[in-house]
Protein backbone atom coordinates (compact mmCIF):
# COMPACT_ATOMS: atom_id res chain seq x y z
CA UNK A 1 0.00 0.00 0.00
CA UNK A 2 1.37 3.43 -0.95
CA UNK A 3 0.91 6.18 1.63
CA UNK A 4 0.82 9.91 0.94
CA UNK A 5 2.84 12.12 3.25
CA UNK A 6 1.09 15.02 5.00
CA UNK A 7 1.42 18.61 3.87
CA UNK A 8 4.05 20.56 5.82
CA UNK A 9 1.64 23.39 6.58
CA UNK A 10 0.62 23.63 9.33
CA UNK A 11 3.63 22.30 11.23
CA UNK A 12 3.60 18.62 12.09
CA UNK A 13 3.36 17.48 15.68
CA UNK A 14 6.10 15.21 17.01
CA UNK A 15 3.80 12.17 16.69
CA UNK A 16 2.79 13.13 13.14
CA UNK A 17 6.44 13.55 12.16
CA UNK A 18 7.39 10.20 13.68
CA UNK A 19 4.58 8.45 11.76
CA UNK A 20 5.47 10.20 8.48
CA UNK A 21 9.15 9.36 8.74
CA UNK A 22 8.39 5.83 9.84
CA UNK A 23 6.44 5.30 6.62
CA UNK A 24 9.11 7.08 4.61
CA UNK A 25 11.92 4.91 6.06
CA UNK A 26 9.88 1.72 5.63
CA UNK A 27 9.66 2.32 1.89
CA UNK A 28 5.91 2.81 1.63
CA UNK A 29 6.24 6.24 0.01
CA UNK A 30 7.01 6.88 -3.66
CA UNK A 31 10.42 8.50 -4.27
CA UNK A 32 8.94 11.61 -5.87
CA UNK A 33 6.66 12.11 -2.89
CA UNK A 34 9.59 11.69 -0.48
CA UNK A 35 11.59 14.32 -2.39
CA UNK A 36 8.65 16.75 -2.42
CA UNK A 37 8.14 16.33 1.31
CA UNK A 38 11.81 16.75 2.25
CA UNK A 39 12.28 19.83 0.07
CA UNK A 40 9.09 21.43 1.41
CA UNK A 41 10.23 20.86 4.99
CA UNK A 42 13.68 22.27 4.26
CA UNK A 43 12.36 25.31 2.43
CA UNK A 44 9.90 26.10 5.21
CA UNK A 45 12.34 25.25 8.03
CA UNK A 46 12.04 22.21 10.26
CA UNK A 47 10.64 22.62 13.77
CA UNK A 48 11.94 21.03 16.97
CA UNK A 49 8.91 18.73 17.07
CA UNK A 50 9.52 17.57 13.50
CA UNK A 51 13.23 16.92 14.05
CA UNK A 52 12.51 15.01 17.27
CA UNK A 53 9.75 12.93 15.66
CA UNK A 54 11.93 12.10 12.66
CA UNK A 55 14.81 11.11 14.95
CA UNK A 56 12.50 8.84 16.96
CA UNK A 57 11.51 7.05 13.76
CA UNK A 58 15.16 6.57 12.79
CA UNK A 59 16.11 5.41 16.29
CA UNK A 60 13.34 2.80 16.24
CA UNK A 61 14.86 1.26 13.08
CA UNK A 62 18.57 1.39 13.90
CA UNK A 63 20.79 -1.53 14.87
CA UNK A 64 22.18 -0.50 18.30
CA UNK A 65 25.30 -1.48 20.21
CA UNK A 66 25.99 -1.46 23.94
CA UNK A 67 28.17 1.31 25.33
CA UNK A 68 29.57 2.38 28.71
CA UNK A 69 27.15 4.67 30.58
CA UNK A 70 29.55 7.63 30.34
CA UNK A 71 30.17 7.32 26.59
CA UNK A 72 30.00 10.48 24.50
CA UNK A 73 29.68 11.32 20.80
CA UNK A 74 31.39 14.24 19.08
CA UNK A 75 30.08 15.05 15.62
CA UNK A 76 28.76 17.71 13.29
CA UNK A 77 25.82 17.82 10.93
CA UNK A 78 28.19 18.73 8.09
CA UNK A 79 27.39 20.79 5.05
CA UNK A 80 28.90 24.04 6.35
CA UNK A 81 30.88 24.56 3.14
CA UNK A 82 34.07 25.62 4.94
CA UNK A 83 36.02 22.41 4.16
CA UNK A 84 38.03 22.52 7.36
CA UNK A 85 40.46 19.95 8.69
CA UNK A 86 38.91 17.04 10.60
CA UNK A 87 38.30 18.69 13.95
CA UNK A 88 35.72 16.33 15.47
CA UNK A 89 37.83 13.30 14.53
CA UNK A 90 40.85 14.72 16.33
CA UNK A 91 38.67 15.77 19.27
CA UNK A 92 37.36 12.21 19.54
CA UNK A 93 40.89 10.84 19.85
CA UNK A 94 41.90 13.48 22.41
CA UNK A 95 38.78 13.05 24.55
CA UNK A 96 39.09 9.25 24.49
CA UNK A 97 42.75 9.62 25.51
CA UNK A 98 41.50 11.59 28.53
CA UNK A 99 39.56 8.49 29.61
CA UNK A 100 36.10 9.33 28.25
CA UNK A 101 34.71 6.59 25.96
CA UNK A 102 33.85 8.02 22.54
CA UNK A 103 31.24 6.37 20.29
CA UNK A 104 32.02 8.29 17.09
CA UNK A 105 29.06 8.18 14.71
CA UNK A 106 29.77 9.16 11.13
CA UNK A 107 30.39 8.20 7.54
CA UNK A 108 32.53 8.92 4.55
CA UNK A 109 32.61 12.41 3.07
CA UNK A 110 29.38 13.63 1.54
CA UNK A 111 29.92 17.33 0.79
CA UNK A 112 33.50 17.72 2.08
CA UNK A 113 36.71 16.40 0.51
CA UNK A 114 37.55 14.18 3.48
CA UNK A 115 35.19 12.89 6.12
CA UNK A 116 36.26 11.26 9.37
CA UNK A 117 36.33 7.78 7.85
CA UNK A 118 38.39 8.89 4.85
CA UNK A 119 41.04 10.56 7.00
CA UNK A 120 41.28 7.73 9.54
CA UNK A 121 41.70 5.26 6.69
CA UNK A 122 44.71 7.16 5.33
CA UNK A 123 46.17 7.14 8.85
CA UNK A 124 46.09 3.34 8.72
CA UNK A 125 42.78 2.33 10.29
CA UNK A 126 40.90 -0.34 8.35
CA UNK A 127 37.52 1.35 8.39
CA UNK A 128 35.48 -1.66 7.34
CA UNK A 129 36.96 -3.71 10.19
CA UNK A 130 36.61 -0.74 12.55
CA UNK A 131 32.92 -0.62 11.75
CA UNK A 132 32.43 -4.35 12.31
CA UNK A 133 34.32 -4.33 15.64
CA UNK A 134 32.89 -1.08 17.02
CA UNK A 135 31.35 -2.60 20.15
CA UNK A 136 34.60 -4.47 20.89
CA UNK A 137 36.93 -1.47 20.55
CA UNK A 138 34.57 0.81 22.47
CA UNK A 139 34.57 -1.61 25.39
CA UNK A 140 38.28 -2.47 25.29
CA UNK A 141 40.09 0.76 24.36
CA UNK A 142 37.38 3.40 24.75
CA UNK A 143 36.77 4.47 21.16
CA UNK A 144 34.91 3.22 18.12
CA UNK A 145 33.63 4.33 14.74
CA UNK A 146 29.97 3.65 14.05
CA UNK A 147 29.40 3.67 10.30
CA UNK A 148 25.93 5.10 9.79
CA UNK A 149 25.37 2.70 6.89
CA UNK A 150 26.01 -0.31 9.16
CA UNK A 151 23.51 0.73 11.79
CA UNK A 152 20.77 2.47 9.81
CA UNK A 153 19.71 0.00 7.11
CA UNK A 154 16.47 1.97 6.63
CA UNK A 155 18.55 4.82 5.20
CA UNK A 156 19.74 2.85 2.19
CA UNK A 157 16.70 3.58 0.06
CA UNK A 158 16.78 7.25 1.11
CA UNK A 159 20.37 7.96 0.03
CA UNK A 160 19.70 8.10 -3.74
CA UNK A 161 16.78 10.45 -3.10
CA UNK A 162 18.93 12.76 -0.97
CA UNK A 163 21.62 12.76 -3.65
CA UNK A 164 19.05 13.61 -6.33
CA UNK A 165 17.65 16.47 -4.23
CA UNK A 166 21.12 17.99 -3.91
CA UNK A 167 20.43 20.17 -0.86
CA UNK A 168 20.43 19.87 2.91
CA UNK A 169 17.37 18.17 4.34
CA UNK A 170 16.15 17.12 7.75
CA UNK A 171 18.29 13.98 7.39
CA UNK A 172 21.38 16.11 7.99
CA UNK A 173 19.88 16.93 11.38
CA UNK A 174 18.55 13.47 12.24
CA UNK A 175 21.84 11.55 12.08
CA UNK A 176 23.53 12.93 15.22
CA UNK A 177 20.30 12.35 17.18
CA UNK A 178 20.31 8.63 16.34
CA UNK A 179 23.69 7.44 17.63
CA UNK A 180 23.60 3.60 17.61
CA UNK A 181 25.38 3.49 20.98
CA UNK A 182 22.46 5.45 22.47
CA UNK A 183 24.86 7.83 24.19
CA UNK A 184 23.47 10.19 26.81
CA UNK A 185 26.13 12.85 26.25
CA UNK A 186 26.91 14.62 22.99
CA UNK A 187 28.78 17.53 21.46
CA UNK A 188 26.94 18.31 18.22
CA UNK A 189 27.98 21.04 15.82
CA UNK A 190 25.46 22.44 13.37
CA UNK A 191 26.10 24.77 10.45
CA UNK A 192 23.32 27.26 11.19
CA UNK A 193 23.73 29.44 14.31
CA UNK A 194 20.09 30.54 14.27
CA UNK A 195 19.03 26.89 14.36
CA UNK A 196 20.85 26.09 17.61
CA UNK A 197 17.81 26.64 19.90
CA UNK A 198 15.53 24.73 17.51
CA UNK A 199 17.90 21.77 17.39
CA UNK A 200 18.43 21.94 21.15
CA UNK A 201 14.66 21.85 21.55
CA UNK A 202 14.55 18.64 19.52
CA UNK A 203 17.24 17.00 21.65
CA UNK A 204 15.48 18.17 24.82
CA UNK A 205 12.28 16.47 23.60
CA UNK A 206 14.24 13.27 23.10
CA UNK A 207 16.00 13.64 26.45
CA UNK A 208 19.71 13.61 27.22
CA UNK A 209 22.02 13.46 30.20
CA UNK A 210 24.05 16.50 29.25
CA UNK A 211 24.85 17.72 25.75
CA UNK A 212 25.89 20.85 23.87
CA UNK A 213 24.69 22.08 20.50
CA UNK A 214 27.24 24.52 19.06
CA UNK A 215 27.66 26.66 15.96
CA UNK A 216 30.23 29.25 14.94
CA UNK A 217 28.83 32.63 13.93
CA UNK A 218 30.17 32.19 10.40
CA UNK A 219 28.18 28.95 10.00
CA UNK A 220 30.82 26.48 11.18
CA UNK A 221 29.50 23.16 12.49
CA UNK A 222 31.84 23.18 15.49
CA UNK A 223 33.18 25.73 17.95
CA UNK A 224 35.06 28.36 15.95
CA UNK A 225 38.19 30.32 16.81
CA UNK A 226 37.19 33.08 14.39
CA UNK A 227 34.58 34.88 16.46
CA UNK A 228 31.62 34.12 18.66
CA UNK A 229 29.73 30.86 19.02
CA UNK A 230 26.14 30.02 19.86
CA UNK A 231 25.82 27.27 22.46
CA UNK A 232 22.77 25.48 23.80
CA UNK A 233 23.50 23.37 26.85
CA UNK A 234 20.88 20.63 27.05
CA UNK A 235 20.19 19.02 30.42
CA UNK A 236 17.53 16.34 30.49
CA UNK A 237 14.45 17.84 28.85
CA UNK A 238 15.47 21.50 28.97
CA UNK A 239 18.23 23.73 27.64
CA UNK A 240 19.96 27.07 28.22
CA UNK A 241 21.58 29.33 25.65
CA UNK A 242 25.11 30.74 26.01
CA UNK A 243 27.78 32.55 24.01
CA UNK A 244 31.48 31.69 24.05
CA UNK A 245 34.59 32.67 22.16
CA UNK A 246 38.17 31.40 22.03
CA UNK A 247 39.45 33.99 24.51
CA UNK A 248 37.27 32.51 27.26
CA UNK A 249 39.20 29.27 26.82
CA UNK A 250 42.55 31.07 26.86
CA UNK A 251 43.02 30.55 23.12
CA UNK A 252 43.92 32.96 20.32
CA UNK A 253 41.39 33.94 17.68
CA UNK A 254 42.10 32.70 14.14
CA UNK A 255 40.18 32.91 10.87
CA UNK A 256 38.45 29.84 9.50
CA UNK A 257 40.92 29.87 6.60
CA UNK A 258 43.66 28.94 9.08
CA UNK A 259 42.19 25.46 9.46
CA UNK A 260 41.17 24.96 5.84
CA UNK A 261 41.55 21.31 4.88
CA UNK A 262 42.11 19.37 1.69
CA UNK A 263 41.75 15.78 0.62
CA UNK A 264 42.11 12.81 2.95
CA UNK A 265 45.89 12.63 2.48
CA UNK A 266 46.30 16.32 3.33
CA UNK A 267 44.01 16.09 6.36
CA UNK A 268 45.63 12.90 7.63
CA UNK A 269 49.08 14.56 7.52
CA UNK A 270 47.72 17.52 9.50
CA UNK A 271 46.13 15.21 12.06
CA UNK A 272 49.32 13.19 12.41
CA UNK A 273 51.29 16.41 13.00
CA UNK A 274 48.71 17.55 15.53
CA UNK A 275 49.07 14.33 17.52
CA UNK A 276 52.84 14.85 17.55
CA UNK A 277 52.34 18.23 19.24
CA UNK A 278 52.50 20.71 16.35
CA UNK A 279 51.14 24.08 17.53
CA UNK A 280 48.84 26.38 15.60
CA UNK A 281 45.19 27.12 14.88
CA UNK A 282 44.30 23.47 14.13
CA UNK A 283 45.54 22.41 17.56
CA UNK A 284 43.69 25.33 19.17
CA UNK A 285 40.43 24.42 17.40
CA UNK A 286 40.76 20.86 18.63
CA UNK A 287 41.54 22.00 22.18
CA UNK A 288 38.54 24.36 22.17
CA UNK A 289 36.11 21.66 21.09
CA UNK A 290 37.70 19.03 23.31
CA UNK A 291 37.24 21.38 26.27
CA UNK A 292 33.51 21.45 25.50
CA UNK A 293 33.33 17.66 25.30
CA UNK A 294 35.25 17.23 28.57
CA UNK A 295 32.82 19.59 30.30
CA UNK A 296 29.88 17.58 28.97
CA UNK A 297 31.51 14.40 30.26
CA UNK A 298 31.97 15.95 33.70
CA UNK A 299 35.75 15.64 33.52
CA UNK A 300 36.41 19.37 33.93
CA UNK A 301 34.48 22.34 35.28
CA UNK A 302 35.48 25.07 32.82
CA UNK A 303 36.94 26.00 29.46
CA UNK A 304 40.53 26.67 30.49
CA UNK A 305 40.71 23.49 32.57
CA UNK A 306 39.38 21.55 29.60
CA UNK A 307 41.99 23.04 27.28
CA UNK A 308 44.75 22.11 29.73
CA UNK A 309 43.59 18.50 30.04
CA UNK A 310 43.21 18.12 26.29
CA UNK A 311 46.65 19.64 25.67
CA UNK A 312 48.17 17.23 28.15
CA UNK A 313 46.62 14.26 26.33
CA UNK A 314 48.31 15.43 23.12
CA UNK A 315 51.65 16.49 24.56
CA UNK A 316 52.12 13.30 26.58
CA UNK A 317 51.48 11.27 23.45
CA UNK A 318 48.32 9.71 24.84
CA UNK A 319 46.10 10.59 21.87
CA UNK A 320 48.65 9.26 19.37
CA UNK A 321 49.11 6.09 21.43
CA UNK A 322 45.35 5.58 21.43
CA UNK A 323 45.18 5.88 17.64
CA UNK A 324 48.08 3.42 17.29
CA UNK A 325 46.36 0.99 19.66
CA UNK A 326 43.07 1.34 17.75
CA UNK A 327 44.83 0.58 14.45
CA UNK A 328 46.60 -2.46 15.96
CA UNK A 329 43.43 -3.79 17.58
CA UNK A 330 41.32 -3.48 14.43
CA UNK A 331 43.91 -4.46 11.81
Strand order of the largest sheet: 1-4-5-6-7
What helical percentage do the residues reach?
Answer: 40-55%
In terms of quaternary structure, the protein is: single chain
SSE string: HHHEHEHHHEHHHEHEEEHHHH
Q: Which residues form runs of ≥5 with pLDDT under 50?
A: none
Amino-to-carboxy terminus distance: 46 Å
Number of strands: 7
* Tally of separate helices: 15
Shape: globular
Main β-sheet: number of strands, strand sense, barrel status? 5 strands, mixed
| Class based on secondary structure composition and strand pairing | alpha/beta
Binding site for anthranilate 2: 162
Domain Glycosyl transferase family: 70-319
GO molecular function: anthranilate phosphoribosyltransferase activity
InterPro entries: Anthranilate_Pribosyl_Tfrase, Glycosyl_Trfase_fam3, Glycosyl_Trfase_fam3_N_dom, Glycosyl_Trfase_fam3_N_dom_sf, Nuc_phospho_transferase
Write the layout of secondary structure elements.
Blueprint: H1 14-25, H2 31-44, H3 48-60, E1 72-76, H4 87-97, E2 102-106, H5 116-122, H6 127-132, H7 134-141, E3 143-147, H8 148-151, H9 159-165, H10 170-174, E4 185-189, H11 196-206, E5 208-216, E6 228-236, E7 238-245, H12 264-275, H13 281-296, H14 303-315, H15 318-330
Parallel strand pairs: 1-4, 2-3, 4-5
Antiparallel strand pairs: 5-6, 6-7
Helix pairs in contact: 1-3, 2-9, 3-11, 4-13, 4-15, 5-12, 13-14
Binding site for 5-phospho-alpha-D-ribose 1-diphosphate: 76, 79-80, 84, 86-89, 104-112, 116
Keywords: Amino-acid biosynthesis, Aromatic amino acid biosynthesis, Glycosyltransferase, Magnesium, Metal-binding, Transferase, Tryptophan biosynthesis
Domain Glycosyl transferase family 3 N-terminal: 11-61
Amino acid sequence: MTITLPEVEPHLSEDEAEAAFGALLDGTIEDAEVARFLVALSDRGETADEIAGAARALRARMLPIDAPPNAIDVCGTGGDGHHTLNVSTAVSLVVAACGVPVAKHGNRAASSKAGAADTLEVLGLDMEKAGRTADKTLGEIGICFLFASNHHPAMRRIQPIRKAIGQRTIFNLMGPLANPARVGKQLIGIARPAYVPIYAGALARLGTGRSMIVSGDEGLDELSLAGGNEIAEVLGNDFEMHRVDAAQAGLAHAPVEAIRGGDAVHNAAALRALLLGTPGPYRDAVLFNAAAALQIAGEVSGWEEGVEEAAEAIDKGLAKALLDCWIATVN
